[in-house]
Amino acid sequence: MTSARVGRPAPADVRTVTCVGAGVIGGGWVAYFLARGYRVVAWDPAEDAEQRLRHLVSAAWPALTELGLADGASLEHLTVEHDLATACAQADFVQESAPEDLELKRALLARIDAATPVEVVISSSTSGYAMSEMQTACAHPERTVVGHPFNPPYLIPLVEVVGGAATSPEAVAWASDFFRHTGKSVITMEREVPGFIANRLQEALWREALHMVAAGEATVEQIDLSITDGPGLRWPVHGPMLTFHLAGGQGGMAHMLDHFGPSLQSPWTRLVAAELTPALRDAVVDGCDREADGRSIDDLVAERDRGVIAILRALGRA
Question: Does the keyword Oxidoreductase apply (predicted)?
Fold first, then answer.
């Protein structure tokens, strides 16, 4: 049963965060909240969850230390509970990061809702489901929101926040304020959109990349290089809209659209998903193995983290 508190805590008064799910995303959230000085209670049903979680957090800690830890931040503030209700009962805020399975999410959110004090906001890390789809079995759906992060959550600042049909505007505003208080960059969406904003844009690029590999038009390595040494260098400074605004010279976006608008009819993108045949799957996997060139996943994570930190510092965002 949920227990009532005397009002919802202010975002700045949150002390304990419960993270439900301790995979790559959930574990990244654990690392982030620990680094921001919170006490974190984690729960995951897998038998080896605690071992994997502590490995992930330890691997992330050097990067977080380099960025700067909050006062009092410590790995000692992590507790792994084996009972979901016990984990949720301690929460001032809950971040759920279970696998992308709608029925699993519905059932798990209902269990979290039943065990969490009634004033506490519950956030889901879903990558594509609408909260309206997931909150249907909750007794208190008004306090459930999507808080969609990006991998790794302990480094990438963006969180997309949006409520469902039964979510109260106050809960959405509270979650947005809380994430900002922790240091996140927040997009508060006015309406639910499948895949939210950033994932829809990523998916368009991903689908075209798979089509190009499948058609023999480009290799995995060429596709990655086309972004890392091309437009990807501009995007940390200006997003695609301002990038194209500058492409119009002194005339800005108006000139760009007037001049290049007809190219929108050119066959530059397919957008429909490529058929993921065994051959395409193998080509992409083999290309990634070649590009990794013997570097382990841990090696690549460390390389990525160093790169993101350097970019954040160069832009004055760290």
Answer: yes
Cα angle, residue 70 at apex, residues 69 and 76 outer, rounded to 5°: 80
Q: Give me the amino acid identity at 152.
A: P
Helices (H), 9-67: 24-35, 49-67
Residue 119 has what pLDDT?
97
> Which pLDDT belongs to residue 257?
78
Which pLDDT does position 244 carry in this prediction?
83
- Dist. CA 20–CA 41, nearest whole Å: 8
Q: How many alpha carbons fall within 13 Å on the CB side of residue 75?
A: 13
Indicate the burial class of 274 (C-beta count within 10 angstroms; 0-12, 13-18, 19 or more). middle
Are the CB atoms for 271 and 211 separated by under 8 Å?
Answer: no
Q: Which CATH architecture has domain 198-314?
A: Orthogonal Bundle (1.10)
pLDDT of residue 6: 65
Residue 124 pLDDT: 98
CATH of 11-188, one of 3.40.250.10, 3.40.50.720, 3.60.9.10, 3.30.200.20: 3.40.50.720
Alpha helices (H) along 94-197 = 102-115, 131-134, 169-182
